Amino acid sequence: MARGEGIKKIKDLFFVYTQRLQAPQRTVIQSFCEVVEELLGVPLETNTCRYAPHTRTITCTLPGPIKTEILLRKKEILTHITGRLGVQNAPKDIL
After folding, report:
1. Is pTM, for the whole model, over 0.85?
2. Quick check: is 18 in a domain?
3. How many domains does the chain have?
4. Residue 1: what pLDDT?
């Protein structure tokens, strides 16, 4: 920005950080558990799920019927998580 261009908006000052920073693993897992509880009515513990940020995949170790229901509604769950965390921080897949 050259001198004399005027006032810069505050949201523009943090643009670089919003593009580079990613949500921590714990935040993604907590959001996933909250979304599953809201949509399916099944409370999940955070220690039953793992998140790999480099592949953006959530892995669950749950009983068969619960995991099957999550996988059947995978697309809906992922869209709700994307709404909470944003496109850059949301997971792409659930296993």
Report:
1. no
2. no
3. 1
4. 53
